Amino acid sequence: VLRVMAECGRSRARAGELRLPHGNVPCPVFMPVGTRGTAKGLTAAQLAALGCRICLGNTFHLGTRPGSELVRRSGGLHGFMDWPHNLLTDSGGFQMVSLLELSEVSEEGVRFRPPHGGEEILLSPEKSMEIQNALGEPGTPKPRGDGEDIPGGVPGPPCGGEDKARFWRTVKFSAEHLPRDKPRYLMGVGYATDLVVCVALGCDMFDCVFPTRTARFGSALVPWGSLQLKNHQFAKDFRPIDADCGCSTCQRYSRAYLHALLRSNTAALHLLTLHNIAYQV
Length: 281
Description:
It comes from Gymnorhina tibicen. By secondary structure, the chain is of the alpha/beta class. The protein has two domains: 2-90 and 130-207, TIM Barrel (Alpha-Beta Barrel), CATH 3.20.20.105; 211-280, no CATH class. The chain is built from eleven helices and 13 strands. The strands form five sheets. The chain has a three-stranded antiparallel sheet with strand order 1-2-3, with no helix packed on it. Helix 2 crosses helix 5 (125-135) and helix 10 (255-262) crosses helix 11 (267-280). The model has no long low-confidence stretch (mean pLDDT 88).
């Protein structure tokens, strides 16, 4: 699955290529999160135009709304969202944390009260695999017998709230004990500093809602941090977000224009999401 092409002599960072059914993916790679079949604010075609060759779908949310059967009848998740590239679906287990007040853990699995109403859902390991198979994802891990090879390792994900030093030590320890020839996927990591450090520690794949979520608050990601474009200082700033960025937002629009849009127009959220995803991938 992973071809390692170069390794750093001073850290555990490496460059490689994931060989997947819908095309090869260079690593390290950041994967945008398409919870319900799209990254919020962008179409699949726009994601592809930004160079994205793999994104995520969420098993729990897709399984409850619109429902895995509808997605299956649409030709799987690829057909449903008109996405020709690679997809990765998660287990739905993160919702144990994000929907903590709506969930109850038992030996059988996790029982959820759906956030949009309806009957309770028991998400067991078997049910998770059933939903993912209905979504039609070739990249979904299939059940394996004892001794069978596994496609990769997951050094994490972080629990959230731990201090950086402890988090990085945990990632370092995990990555050191995972096979060299397998991809190492660190879930839920999207801050720039964390990405740089965790690549140096040997991780290959990352995902996070951070670039899309922060855009909805008027924040644009740049190499030196972020710009809070709602602030008055940008009202007469006619520069692009980042002069070195090739995304269509930076090529066409000024900080002043985006500042004005953020006061009254949701188009700004789309333009900032496009820039943030372009920056991150």
